[in-house]
Design brief:
The complex is a heterodimer of chains A (about 120) and B (about 900).
Chain A: H1 11-20, E1 25-26, H2 27-38, H3 46-58, E2 62-68, E3 74-80, H4 82-107
Antiparallel strand pairs in A: 1-3, 2-3
Chain B: H1 12-36, H2 41-51, H3 55-95, H4 97-126, E1 137-140, E2 146-147, H5 148-157, E3 161-176, E4 182-189, H6 193-197, E5 203-204, E6 219-222, H7 224-231, E7 241-244, E8 247-254, E9 268-271, E10 284-292, H8 298-316, E11 328-330, H9 331-371, H10 373-381, H11 386-422, H12 437-462, H13 467-472, H14 481-517, E12 527-532, H15 542-557, E13 562-568, E14 579-584, E15 597-605, H16 607-611, E16 615-618, E17 632-636, H17 637-643, E18 653-656, E19 665-671, E20 686-690, H18 691-694, E21 699-705, H19 713-723, E22 729-734, H20 735-742, H21 744-778, H22 780-788, H23 793-826, H24 838-864, H25 868-873
Helix pairs in contact in B: 1-2, 1-3, 3-11, 4-9, 4-11, 4-12, 9-12, 9-14, 9-21, 11-12, 14-21, 14-23, 14-24, 21-23, 21-24, 23-24
Classes of the chains: A alpha+beta (about 120), B alpha+beta (about 900).
Chain lengths: ~120, ~900
């Protein structure tokens, strides 16, 4: 397992929305998706993920309903709402531009100035 | 979530359960996942559990934030529901316009009366006077006047006062040299007066400390109103010289429009004329006010003044009773003293009126909810909770209260204007009365309180419907035992409260009736009065003065329709007396004894005939009683009886006002007593002197006519103008108006109480009518059966009437008891009648019962005419 990365504030919301952009999912599905695609490198525990899910639900970015799964378990299934999708698009865009700029800055070589 | 579909409420238990279930599924799925990846079950479970961290902590965190969200949602939903309730209530009200209009008007009436009355009470009694630190201002010896000598003494010696000022009201001064000659209402003040109050002029300056000194005192400060009317608001007025009583006087300042102090209708302020060598130096004409020094209180100031009294008495040779009863009271209390009681009584009456309105609207609400009985039952049956229904009904009553309240405040503004016109203009600060934020706050509080008061009871009752019962039995609904009891209670309360109001109005009406029939000792009907104060050189000598007034009286008497003409320096019933000390030659008074005082009048012309003051014995004044002739005097019957009981006072020698009259005067006649200062106090000991021997420069003329005295005004003005074009004809009014003004406060109280009582009775009648009519409509079936079984019309009528009567009798009994208790507040206002007067109380009770019968009669007749067939089929 790769070393865990500290999570930047607000990124979990974005990641959860991204997970749901593939289709309705229950908490386990989202958790598995994050785990699989980050190869376990995100230090995100499931408890925090549920808090984020519930908060997104309150803000009407996702909606939730109880469904019965294939193997007859009652699970709460979350769906991205129209507002949630718009939020995801906006956040993705911001994130990409932001990370490009920061990456460029952080990888720039120090310029040599006139010698003393 | 839509506002239309009610959200299912989740309590804390539901929330916990859901979270637990969601987490359980989560763990189970991870366990399945790990098992599928080939881990043994216990290892899979361990890993799955590890994913959610410490299980209990996770649960707690999640449910805490969930509950927080739930609260938020509930709050938002509460508002949404409220919006729904309001629009529902609005629909209900639109659907029943009669109910809505009557309820709104009733309530608006109550709130309107309350708004008007309370704004007056607040402006006059409650709002601090508009001066610097008004609570530190005090009236010194509020019941009597002080002299210039005392003023100076107090200014120098009173340590408990950081300042003492004097205000001498009621000077009539003729102003010439600025437009038409005009009689001004002037007050003389000590030079420090304005500075002590802490006020500033709008223009120019205030008095300087030396402007009470001889030679400096010809300066004046104008009121804003005079500045506008007489000088057209010209700012260059400061520095201008006008003639005041023939004396060139410089205008030094103009006060702002809002300024008012002690006397409400002052045109200009002049400095007190303080001359230690003048015989008037010790004459007591001014009201003293002071500013309490730091650390001093009204009590310590009063104590200090008491300690100064003996020294002042000795210094200025005042009589033994000097300073008796002298106190120090707060300025505001002193200014409002006389009318405080009247205003509070009226405010109380308004409160009663509001209560009646509340009871009435409460009753209407009950009828309204009863009419909606079936609808409410259906809603209960469909699952609406009791509190939900109560809330909706309370929202509706609050809505009525709020709309009614807003209408009422609007009506109150109109009422307040009317009140300001009706109340005696002498009320301090009446002109500043307005609808301010304080009044609005009180009105809002009363409105909401009243809305709850008339809303909660009916709502709670209405929500007690038994859904199944109502739906099963297809009755006309309503009329639960409790709601009938509540209606009856409302009606009893309304009747009782109305009786209290009517009793108060009755007492005041009786008071007015008595006052108008009291023998005041003169006949005010058919007499015109006005004040003449010549300024020209025509009164430069005593002989000229006598001639002036004699000639004017002669010319006035020649006006067609004029019967007789006379004059006196001061007319009776103007609220105060001119007093002077009395000496009797045959009864020397020891210097240590209290010196007696008498009221005196200086008269000329046919004063006694014009006033119709009867001559009891001796003679009246004659043309021969001139300045050179021996001094003569006429006394009142009660004075003759007091000093010469059983003997003849004619020929006795007395002296009045020892400061200015050294000569003994001979009593030549005795006349009937007159009520001198006020109509409610019996005639006092009084003396009359011929003005030819006293030489006063101003007179109030009395002109008797057979017709309407006010019809004479034009010809009187013409005659005076032809005689002396420089003299203003001031204070023109009928003697009847002088009398009316003297009982003005009582008349106002009587008038307003009568108005409130009428409204209260009307509301009470509506209440009785409502209850009886409702009960008839509820009993249509029963009454129909009775008729079918042969009951006589008369019996049914009586049966219904009796219902209204029974309630009224209970109300009347309670109301009469209330009236006896409330009557105590009227004690100081009634005259010639006890507040427990059995005749008035019985009359009020009888009236109330009559109104009750009248209000029940319509429904009773309707009940008697019920057609049994229709009634029975009507189900």
């Amino acid at each position: 397992m790769a070393q865990e990365l500290p999570l930047l504030k607000g990124t979990v919301d974005m990641l959860v929305l991204k997970a749901l952009s593939w289709g309705p999912m229950h908490g386990f599905g989202i958790s598995l998706w994050l785990d699989t695609h980050s190869k376990g490198s995100l230090g995100l525990d499931d408890s925090s993920m549920y808090q984020v899910l519930h908060r997104l639900e309150e803000r009407k970015l996702v909606s939730a309903e109880w469904r019965t799964t294939d193997n007859n378990r009652r699970a709460r299934v979350y769906t991205l709402t129209r507002a949630g999708r718009a939020q995801l698009d906006a956040q993705t865009d911001t994130w990409l531009r932001y990370s490009r700029v920061v990456t460029a800055l952080m990888t720039a070589r120090p310029r040599t100035t006139g010698s003393t | 979530m839509s506002a239309r579909i009610p959200r299912i409420h989740r309590d804390a238990g539901d929330i916990d359960r859901e979270i637990r279930e969601e987490l359980a599924t989560h763990i189970a799925m991870w366990t399945d996942h790990f098992i599928a990846r080939g881990l043994p079950r216990d290892e899979a479970e361990r890993r799955a559990l590890a994913r959610v961290g410490e299980l209990q902590a996770t649960l707690d965190t999640l449910s805490a934030s969930a509950r927080h969200r739930e609260d938020f949602m509930n709050r938002r939903e509460w508002w949404t529901t409220l919006r729904g309730d309001v629009s529902f209530a609005m629909r209900q009200m639109r659907r029943q316009p009669a109910f809505t209009i009557v309820a709104l008007l009733t309530f608006a009436l109550g709130i309107g009366a309350n708004t008007a009355m309370f704004s007056v009470v607040r402006g006059v009694l409650l709002r601090p006077l508009p001066y610097r630190e008004p609570q530190r201002l005090a009236a010194i010896w509020p019941t009597r006047a002080i002299s210039n000598a005392e003023l100076i003494y107090l200014q120098r010696n009173a340590r408990s006062m950081s300042g003492v000022a004097a205000f001498s009201p009621g000077w009539g001064i003729a102003m010439t040299g600025a437009g038409d000659p005009r009689q001004l209402a002037v007050a003389r003040t000590s030079t420090s007066f304005f500075q002590m109050l802490g006020v500033r002029p709008a223009l120019g300056r205030l008095f300087t400390p030396n402007e009470s000194d001889p030679g400096n005192w010809d300066v004046a400060i104008l009121s804003h109103a005079l500045w506008i009317t007489q000088f057209g608001g010209d700012p260059s007025v400061v520095g201008r010289v006008v003639d005041m009583d023939g004396q060139p006087t410089r205008i030094v300042g103009v006060m702002p429009a809002s300024f008012e102090a002690i006397q409400s209708d002052v045109d200009a302020w002049l400095p007190l004329q303080i001359d230690p060598h003048s015989p008037f130096y010790t004459g007591q004409t001014a009201i003293a006010i002071g500013r309490l020094a730091p650390g001093a209180t009204l009590v310590t100031a009063a104590a200090e003044l008491a300690s100064l009294v003996p020294r002042i008495r000795a210094a200025f040779n005042y009589t033994e009773d000097y300073g008796r009863g002298g106190t120090v009271v707060g300025l505001q209390e002193s200014l409002t003293g006389g009318t405080r009681r009247a205003l509070l009584v009226l405010l109380g009456a308004v409160a009663v009126l509001v209560l009646i309105a509340v009871a009435n609207v409460g009753n209407l609400m009950l009828s309204h909810t009863n009419a909606r009985h079936r609808e409410l039952a259906i809603r209960r049956a469909l699952g609406a909770s009791r509190s939900r229904i109560v809330r909706q009904l309370v929202v509706q009553s609050l809505l009525i209260a709020l709309i009614g309240g807003v209408l009422g405040v609007g009506a109150g503004v109109v009422g307040m204007r009317a009140l300001k016109a009706v109340l005696p203009a002498t009320l301090p600060m009446l002109s500043t009365v307005s609808l301010d934020i304080g009044v609005l706050i009180v009105c809002a509080a009363v409105t909401v309180g009243a809305g709850l008061a008339f809303g909660i009871g009916p709502a709670a009752l209405a929500s007690r419907v038994d859904p199944e019962g109502v739906l099963r039995v297809s009755s006309t609904g309503g009329g639960s035992r409790a709601s009938i009891a509540m209606r009856r209670a409302f009606v009893v309360a309304e009747v009782a409260l109305a009786v209290v109001l009517v009793a108060g109005a009755g007492l005041m009406a009786e008071t007015l009736w008595r006052l108008q029939r009291v023998d005041i000792g003169f006949d005010p009907r058919g007499v015109l009065t006005f004040r003449i104060q010549p300024t020209s050189g025509q009164v430069s000598t005593p002989e000229k003065t006598a001639l002036y007034f004699d000639e004017l009286a002669r010319r006035l008497a020649a006006i067609p329709g004029v019967a007789t003409v006379g004059a006196a320096q001061h007319l009776p019933l103007s609220g105060f007396n001119w007093n002077a000390s009395l000496d009797i030659e045959s009864h020397p008074i020891p210097t240590t004894a209290a010196h007696p005082f008498v009221v005196w009048r200086s008269v000329t012309g046919n004063y006694f005939e014009t006033m119709r003051v009867p001559l009891v014995r001796g003679r009246l004044f004659e043309a021969t009683d001139t300045r050179g002739a021996p001094p003569v005097i006429v006394i009142s019957a009660s004075m003759a009886a007091h000093y010469w009981p059983g003997r003849n006072a004619i020929g006795e020698h007395i002296r009045v006002g020892n400061a200015t009259n050294k000569n003994w005067a001979t009593i030549v006649g005795v006349v009937g007593d007159v009520r001198s200062a006020t109509a409610d106090a019996p005639g006092v000991e009084e003396v009359y002197r011929p003005n030819a021997q006293l030489n006063l420069h101003f007179m109030h003329f009395v002109v008797r006519t057979s017709g309407n005295p006010m019809a004479l005004v034009a010809s009187v003005r013409a005659v005076v103008h032809a005689f002396d074009a420089t003299v203003p004809v001031a204070e023109v009014q009928s003697l009847g108006d002088v009398f009316a003004t003297s009982i003005g406060t009582r008349r106002t109280v009587a008038m307003l109480l009568a108005a409130f009582a009428t409204l209260g009775t009307l509301l009470g009648a509506i209440g009785i009518y409502g209850v009886v009519a409702y009960s008839v409509s509820q009993r249509t079936r029963e009454l129909g059966i009775r008729t079918a079984l042969g009951a006589i019309e008369r019996h049914i009528t009586w049966m219904v009437l009796r219902e209204g009567l029974e309630l009224s009798i209970i109300g009347v009994v309670i109301g009469v008891c209330g009236a006896i208790v409330a009557g105590r507040a009227l004690q100081a206002l009634v005259f010639g009648v006890q507040t427990t007067d059995p005749i008035i109380l019985s009359a009020v009770a009888a009236c109330a019962l009559l109104v009750a019968v009248a209000a029940s009669y319509g429904p009773a007749r309707r009940a008697a005419r019920i057609d049994p067939l229709t009634a029975l089929r009507g189900e």
